[in-house]
Amino acid sequence: MAEALEAMPDDWTRALAVVAHPDDLEYGTAAAIARWTGEGREISYLLATRGEAGIDILDPAEAAPLREREQRASAAVVGVTSVEFLGHRDGVIEYGTVLRRDIAAAIRRHRPELLITINHRDTWGGTYWNTPDHRAVGRAVLDAAADAGNRWIFPELTADGLAPWNGVRWVAVSGSSSPTHSVGVDDTHLEAAVRSLLEHRTYIEALTDQDPEEYCRDFVAQVTSSSGGRAAVSFELFTR
Ligand SMILES: [Zn+2]
Asked: Count of CB atoms within 10 A of residue 201's CB?
């Protein structure tokens, strides 16, 4: 399938990845992140929540700092050292102006050419329903790309010293059932992606009885496989 997709643009130097939860970027996207940071590009992560509602057997007060630590470790594996958390409440993120403003502020601080997020659509394809947090954050990222460039939409950001940034050229959505572009990844990137996902160890151990490393390896292999045999990460690319 990836062979029919266009190549992801590579004339950019800074990207900001914005997702709802710790682990959202590690289910495949991290292989592309590993390639891009290896090429010398600068990538930052912005998490809307600390993922505190993600582990059934852990109270949110305990889960939040643990998942934040796991996310920072996971980012470091693929060369990302800037990891910020907005502190929205896990599971009940509300799409709206508060979320759009928070993301627009981060875009103005980081000044990326590329935004990365995960599936904003209702389903993962077919009838496999997506979560409300992913839908809310994905849609807000697509909207905030324009918000960040308009000085009159959130004038309080300008008053806070955050000048408008209208330099976002693309928003790349991973996990979409309608991918348009892809980026090839090699064994080094895949191994980094497996290690990156494996850093969410507490989460994964609570999620599955399968051996954690085997689980990560299987998942990364599955989402990066293409009919041509060459591993790739695919995205639905929105151009601005
Ligand atoms: Zn998620």
From this structure: 16
CA trace torsion 207, 210, 213, 215 (10° rounding): -70
Q: In degrees rounded to 5, what are phi and psi of residue 183?
A: -130, 130
* pLDDT averages per 10-residue partition of the chain, 240 residues: 80 98 96 98 98 95 97 98 98 98 98 98 96 98 98 95 98 96 97 98 94 96 85 97
Q: How far is the CA of 163 from the centre of ligand 1 (A)?
A: 30
Report the C-alpha gap between 233 and 37 in whole angstroms. 15
Cα of 144 vs centre of ligand 1, distance in Å, is: 19
Is-contact 29 118, C-beta < 8 A?
yes
Q: How many Å lie between the centroid of ligand 1 and the Cα of residue 20?
A: 6
Q: What is the reported pTM?
A: 0.96
DSSP H helical ranges for 45-180: 60-77, 97-110, 132-147, 155-159
Amino acid letter, residue 88: H
Look at the block and give the residue holding tokens 């896990």.
Answer: 90
Ligand 1 centroid–CA 49 distance in Å is 10
Distance 140 CA to ligand 1 centre (A): 15
- Partnered with residue 9 across adjacent β-strands are none
Residues 6+ apart with CB under 8 A from 191: none
